[in-house]
Each structure stands twice: as C-alpha cells, then as structure tokens.
Amino acid sequence: AAGIIHLLENSGDPLEFNNPQQLSYWTCVYFLIVTMSTVGYGDVYCETVLGRTFLVFFLLVGLAVFASWIPEITELAAQRNKYGGKYTKDVRRRHIVVCGHITYESVSHFLKDFLHEDREDVDVEVVFLHRKPPDLELEGLFKRHFTTVEFFQGTIMSPI
C-alpha cells in the first residue's frame, strides 16, 4: 500500500498536470501507519486526486476487514470464565474464604449472621469459592452484597 501511495503521489495529479510534492517511500510507509492508527497527525497527507482516492479505498477495506473480525473477538470474550481469575486482597480490609456446600440458603443465612450490624467488626470481605457457577438466585444475592462479597469458581486446590 505504501508503494502505491508513493507511486501515485510522485506521479503528480493527472487532472492538473503538476506534481505538488515528492515523497520518499518511507514517508509513505509512515503516512499509512499514522493513518491506519487513526492518529492522523496531518504532517504528511495526499495532495493528488489519485492518492486521495486510493487512500479512501484503502481505509474502507481496512474497516471492512476489522468489522469482519468483530464476531470472533466477541466469541473470545464470551468464552472467558465470568467467575475465574485471582482474588486481589485489599490491604486495608480483612477477608475470609468460604467454600464447601454453597447454596442460596446457606449463603443467605451466613451473610445475615456474619454481616449483622450488632457485630463489632463488619469491615471484612467474604470470598466464596465453589466448583460450579452460582445459579441466578445466588448470583442475585452476591450482587446485593457486591461491596462485601466476591465469588470465584474453582476449589482451594485448583482454581478454574
């Protein structure tokens, strides 16, 4: 593509029979990279009709190729485990890890007791760990307590 820009810009404008600029090949490479990155500094630009026409075509093809990759990118993002990853401890807060039989009933009773306002120190983060992802009811409970609760899928010995 840089070679085509180089040829078109250095051949001159056929409609006006003049050549407004002389560009080196590497200047054309720089121009295309800056244009494709959408920065478009404006220090180098096409002045001929043929150069501008080619550039419009080049950018449209580039956008079409990028648009064709969007479904694949979306699929890759969807395959990422929603409850995977690492726990990042906040140095200002203590935390506990709860694993075992994680159900809506057990978690709601635990949180009701553990996060009760009569307790002296409630500023503790609760991390739940289970092999299976939570069902919708349990996920809703976690979202209601999003400031104090995190859920990860996996086991103590093998995170997913």
From TrEMBL:
CC terms in the record's Gene Ontology section: postsynaptic membrane
UniProtKB keywords: Ion channel, Ion transport, Membrane, Potassium, Potassium channel, Potassium transport, Transmembrane, Transmembrane helix, Transport
Compartments, as annotated in UniProt: Membrane
Domain Potassium channel: 17-75
Swiss-Prot/TrEMBL catalytic activity: K(+)(in) = K(+)(out)
TM region positions: 23-42, 49-70
Listed InterPro entries: K_chnl_dom, K_chnl_Slo-like, RCK_N
Domain of life: Eukaryota
Domain (RCK N-terminal): residue spans on this chain: 93-158
Membrane topology: Multi-pass membrane protein
SUPFAM superfamilies according to UniProt: Voltage-gated potassium channels
GO molecular function, one term: large conductance calcium-activated potassium channel activity
PANTHER family, per the entry: CALCIUM-ACTIVATED POTASSIUM CHANNEL ALPHA CHAIN, CALCIUM-ACTIVATED POTASSIUM CHANNEL SUBUNIT ALPHA-1-RELATED
Record-given protein name: Calcium-activated potassium channel slowpoke
Species in which this protein is naturally found: Culex pipiens
